[in-house]
């Protein structure tokens, strides 16, 4: 059985589906701080294998110890954490407590239980304001905000842990920009309040919940002046986790891998693609740049292809179509309970 922390969240829930499709049973630990309990019923409806759930916090040692005592856990996928960049600058302590403190508790519990295989959700944010695209894994890392710094610290903690005991098998997966939803439209991204990220914002404009998109900056040195990112379908990302687990089981060691498509798409290109798929007009206006944004950020993917034997398969039209189907079928996100 695989323990999935944060498994009711956006990426963790999709990873549960991929794990289940690969024949694994999963046990989810989630404190519901950024997800709803109703995700569980949806998940059980699309997962072919058993999905257990425990409501609890990764910082709660008793809960962790009970979980490791109850289930035969062979590996952990660790998604639980806080992820809003803006919020992290206002509440750094809660970000360090949740992300770093929580990871330390989890690592302690894993050590005690003798479970030493971990797949960790890192982020392209560890590349800071690097603009040498495509970005290879060995690029210099830096942080521009507490959220990013928490990911940097955790990456370093995991490296120290692996150096101290090479029985640990650890994958540090650096996600680029996850978008889309499971093709069933039963699970997807359900942001609280005004979406901070581009794709959910566009989807809400397309469905009529918001009037227009603010495009942050039209004067970047890119092909159309708007920011370029590496959008990757969340199911490709989820399958990348299963591939990472297999690679760890195959060869052990510590893997640090970008999960992206390797190609960049501008904001205007996303608007166009989404508009074609949804047959909706997406009104937008170009406004000031968002502080902290880089012009372009996309992954070098050769390492992922080599060590994980994984490559993103779904294209931009698939990402928009699946995100749109989720938005249309769940205009208000998940039900409360
Ligand atoms: P999410 O907020 O949708 O999911 C995180 C889940 O963890 C939520 O269900 C939340 O309730 C739970 N959680 C938070 N703190 C917890 C705690 N202390 N104990 C137990 N459960 C807790 O986020 P997501 O988009 O699915 O991201 C998952 C991971 O991937 C995060 O670590 C995030 O930093 C990382 N990541 C996300 C993105 C992205 O764009 N979504 C990009 C790069 C990295
Ligand atoms: C954001 C996070 C980053 C995280 C990444 C992946 C910030 C500052 N950075 O980056 O830490 O790793 O998500 O989840 O939040 N855009 C608009 N209008 C909008 C929203 C976005 O024009 O309303 C533009 C942005 O300027 C950017 C692109 O769309 O060019 C993508 O933005 P977003 O989805 O927020 O992702 P990132 O900026 O890559």
Description:
With 337 residues, this protein is an alpha/beta fold. It has a domain at 2-179 and 231-260 and 299-312: NAD(P)-binding Rossmann-like Domain (Rossmann fold), CATH 3.40.50.720. Helices cover 41% and strands 17% of the residues. It is built from eleven helices and 14 strands. The chain has helices spanning 10-21, 38-46, 61-70, 85-90, 92-113, 146-164, 198-206, 234-251, 267-278, 302-308, 316-329; strands at 2-5, 26-30, 51-55, 75-78, 117-123, 169-175, 177-179, 213-216, 228-229, 231-233, 254-259, 265-266, 284-287, 296-297. A seven-stranded parallel sheet has the order 3-2-1-4-5-6-11, sandwiched between helices. A three-stranded mixed sheet has the order 12-9-14. Helix 6 (146-164) links the parallel strand 5 and strand 6 (169-175). Helix 5 (92-113) runs parallel beside helix 6 (146-164), helix 7 (198-206) packs parallel to helix 9 (267-278) and helix 9 (267-278) crosses helix 11 (316-329). The longest helix has 22 residues, at 92-113. It is globular and about 55 Å long. The two termini are 26 Å apart. The model has no long low-confidence stretch (mean pLDDT 96). Bound molecules: nicotinamide-adenine-dinucleotide (NAD) and uridine-diphosphate-N-acetylglucosamine. Uridine-diphosphate-N-acetylglucosamine is lined by residues 85, 123-125, 177, 196-198, 201, 213-216, 227, 229, 267, 290, 292-293.
Report, as a whole number of angstroms, the end-to-end distance. 26 Å
Number of strands: 14
- CATH topology of the domain at 2-179 and 231-260 and 299-312, which one? Rossmann fold
- Give the structural class: alpha/beta
What is the fourth-level CATH superfamily of the domain at 2-179 and 231-260 and 299-312? NAD(P)-binding Rossmann-like Domain
Strand line-up across the major sheet: 3-2-1-4-5-6-11
Q: Please name the CATH architecture of the domain at 2-179 and 231-260 and 299-312.
A: 3-Layer(aba) Sandwich
User: Which class of the domain at 2-179 and 231-260 and 299-312 in CATH terms?
Assistant: Alpha Beta
Residue-averaged pLDDT: 96
């Amino acid at each position: 059985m695989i323990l999935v922390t944060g498994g009711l969240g956006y990426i963790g829930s999709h990873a549960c589906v991929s794990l289940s499709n690969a024949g694994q049973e999963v046990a989810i630990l989630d404190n519901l701080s950024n997800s709803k309990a109703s995700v569980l019923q949806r998940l059980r409806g699309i997962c072919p294998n058993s999905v257990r759930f425990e409501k609890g916090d990764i910082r709660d040692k008793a809960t962790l110890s009970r979980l490791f005592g109850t289930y035969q856990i062979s590996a952990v996928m660790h998604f639980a954490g806080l992820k809003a960049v803006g919020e992290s600058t206002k509440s750094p302590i809660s970000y360090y407590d949740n992300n770093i403190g929580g990871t330390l508790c989890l690592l302690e519990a894993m050590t005690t239980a003798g479970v030493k295989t971990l797949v960790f959700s890192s982020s392209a944010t560890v590349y800071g304001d690097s603009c040498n695209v495509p970005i290879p894994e060995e690029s210099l890392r830096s942080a521009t905000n507490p959220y990013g710094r928490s990911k940097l610290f955790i990456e370093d903690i995991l490296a120290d842990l692996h150096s101290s005991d090479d029985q640990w098998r650890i994958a540090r997966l650096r996600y680029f920009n996850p978008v889309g939803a499971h093709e069933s439209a039963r699970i997807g991204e359900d942001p609280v309040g005004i979406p901070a990220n581009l794709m959910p914002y566009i989807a809400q404009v397309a469905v009529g919940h918001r009037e227009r998109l603010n495009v942050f900056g039209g004067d970047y040195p890119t092909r159309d002046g708007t920011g370029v990112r590496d959008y990757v379908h969340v199911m490709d990302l989820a399958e990348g986790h299963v591939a990472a687990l297999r690679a760890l089981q195959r060869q052990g060691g510590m893997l640090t891998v970008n999960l992206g498509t390797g190609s960049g798409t501008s904001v205007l290109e996303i608007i166009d693609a989404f508009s074609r798929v949804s047959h909706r007009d997406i009104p937008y206006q170009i406004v000031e740049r968002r502080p902290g944004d880089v012009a372009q950020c996309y992954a070098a993917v050769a390492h992922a292809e080599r060590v994980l034997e994984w490559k993103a398969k779904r294209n931009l039209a698939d990402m928009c179509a699946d995100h749109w189907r989720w938005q249309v079928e769940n205009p208000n996100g998940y039900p409360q309970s």
